[in-house]
Design brief:
Elements (H helix, E strand, L loop, with lengths): L2 H14 L37 H7 L2 H9 L4 H10 L4 H22 L7 H5 L3 H7 E9 L2 E9 H4 L2 H17 L6 H20 L6 E11 L5 E4 L3 H8 L1
Antiparallel strand pairs: 1-2, 2-3, 3-4
Helix pairs in contact: 5-11, 9-10
Length: about 240
């Protein structure tokens, strides 16, 4: 399975809560015709809106709601798509993979950044945690297009508090697997890893902020700001 196919499968699970079996042709060494390496990013120096700009304020006020709506596996639309996905013929599955690959290229090229795997991660977070762990920016892409960007704060996400929370989660997972966890050992190991990242950031060895999500918004002729769903072409193909 190629990296793009793995992303594809994860995306279907995130959006629709459904597994996916690749067509037989992909099990014989053939791969999606459009590799991730084909994505061409625009290296133009980015221009960001001021946080007091009305367009920034408008986009900032709605991005989380847009994410939650798209990742809601219980929504009527996503349930319908999940059902239809399970009934696709092998030919249709292959076509859908090609559409997905092209959608990644088109969307990432426009937003100049990642958008795929952090959808649900951000959508499920509490607004307070989002404000603390991400720096939200809006890039002016020109032609009335804007990229809403989430930049993860390496210091915030690797805090001692988060280290302890993750250690507790690892302990719970081992307990659920009927494994007797070394609680002190797990906590100590996680705390050291998180501290190492913080120290690396403070020492200037790695950037503090990393862009992990970029969403496309367009200002229409009537002035309204609309969200352009990266997966819309997939939905259109499945439900048509």
């Amino acid at each position: 399975m190629t990296a793009l196919q793995i992303i594809y499968a994860i995306t279907l699970m995130v959006l629709f809560g459904t597994g996916y079996c690749f067509p037989q042709s992909n099990n014989t060494g053939q791969t999606m015709s459009t590799p991730i390496s084909n994505i061409q990013l625009d290296n133009t120096t980015p221009v960001y809106l001021d946080k007091s700009d009305p367009i920034f304020i408008s986009i900032n006020a709605r991005t989380v709601a847009d994410l939650k709506q798209r990742t809601d596996t219980a929504s009527a639309e996503n349930k319908l798509i999940a059902v239809k996905l399970r009934t696709l013929t092998e030919e249709k599955q292959t076509q859908l993979e090609a559409i997905f690959a092209q959608a990644i290229i088109n969307y990432t090229s426009q937003t100049r950044g990642e958008f795929m795997l952090h959808f649900k991660e951000v959508a499920e977070k509490d607004p307070k945690d989002i404000a603390e762990e991400y720096d939200f920016r809006v890039q002016n892409l020109g032609s009335d297009k804007y990229a809403a960007e989430y930049w993860e704060d390496g210091l915030a996400v690797n805090s001692e508090e988060n280290a302890l929370a993750w250690a507790q989660e690892l302990v719970k997972r081992q307990e659920s697997d009927k494994i007797s966890p070394d609680i002190k050992g797990i906590v100590q190991e996680v705390k050291i890893k998180y501290e190492d990242v913080r120290n690396s950031v403070k020492a200037g060895k790695q950037e503090r902020y990393t862009k992990v999500l970029a969403l496309l918004y367009v200002q229409e002729k009537n002035g309204f700001i609309t969200f352009r769903d990266p997966y819309q072409e997939l939905f259109n193909f499945v439900i048509k």
